[in-house]
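FIELD: query
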Amino acid sequence: MLAYTLDWLSLLGRWLHLITGIAWIGASFYFVWLDNHLLAPRRSELREAGVGGELWAVHGGGFYNAQKYKVAPAQLPEHLHWFYWEAYTTWLSGFFLLGLLYYAQAEVYLIDPAVLALSKPAAIGIGLGFLLGGWLIYDALCRSPLGRHERVLGALLALLLSAAAYALCHLFSGRGAYLQFGAMLGTIMVANVFFVIIPGQRELVRAKREGREPDPIHGLRGKQRSVHNTYFTLPVLLVMISNHYAMSYGAKYNWAVLIALTLAGALIRAWFVARHKAHERGGRTPPWTVAAGVLLLLLVALLLRPAPVAGSTAAKPAAEEFAAVQGIIQARCAGCHAEHPTLLGFAAPPKGVVLDSAEHILTHTTAIQQQLASKAMPIGNLTAMTEDERAAVLAWIEHGARR
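FIELD: result
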């Protein structure tokens, strides 16, 4: 019953996380797009009122006229809409899932003794340390003199994030490291909203209500953090779905794969941001960043392609070989991959893959090969599969998966 309850909590938590994430990312992408499409107002009364840019759009059967003030309007409107609960709820639901799966079940999803034999409290403490430490270091850099030099700051952040990816992949299981890296980026993103963007906006509103001249520095800081968030978004989305693709987190150099995919996501997003300003370049957007991102993805895919499994050239008789393989799978895999899993914490077979019969094993040989070759399964090697057993199953598949 506990495993069944955890499954429902996971399902509902993921659903909420997805819904609020769509709302947050949608609003974030829209405002980045809007900022980059604003044109200088043509009407003199708008310029005199302090409008720095405006945009006309048509959507849903109506016309919209968006205007952005250089600092603030002369008089605040009665109703002012804020955007922040989308971000907060996304992080809260994400942290709930992180705690439910990767911390509460750290011995399954986070700890891999083959990487580092951590205790459960140590693994959780290190994970939380990366969430907090990542934000503190990032925020300190943005507030330092380096924060005024975006290119230098961006290069330094790229180096530090690469170091974090390397460290996480040498502390946790590949799956856990990827999710922890995404959680760190997501924490930085929501902390930008909570500690910088929203307080700055509240100060602008407070200044207007108190009759003071608003300080434009709050708008500039908020814009900087908002732009950083948009570059973090695609890498965060990548690691959210990475647990379904063992070829990435299960690779020998999974830290390098994580760095490359993160960089590719940032480059592709940079092209879209540049494309928003195509009107300033006669409608043209140089393709170099998106081309570099796509080529990087292709290179990673090429390097991760499955290699032929080294096995004996003289295979055993088919029946004998399959009997041995079936015994290994029964002992090391069927605890999870059965109609009714016996391994604690699993109410149903992962991804619906059942391996408790000869027919089921033969049906899933491709998936078995990928999971075993990447060492993603058995998860956390909870069933203590030996390297000889792993090699025997892979060799059987290489010989044609005969029965």
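FIELD: remark
Strands lie at 51-59, 62-69.
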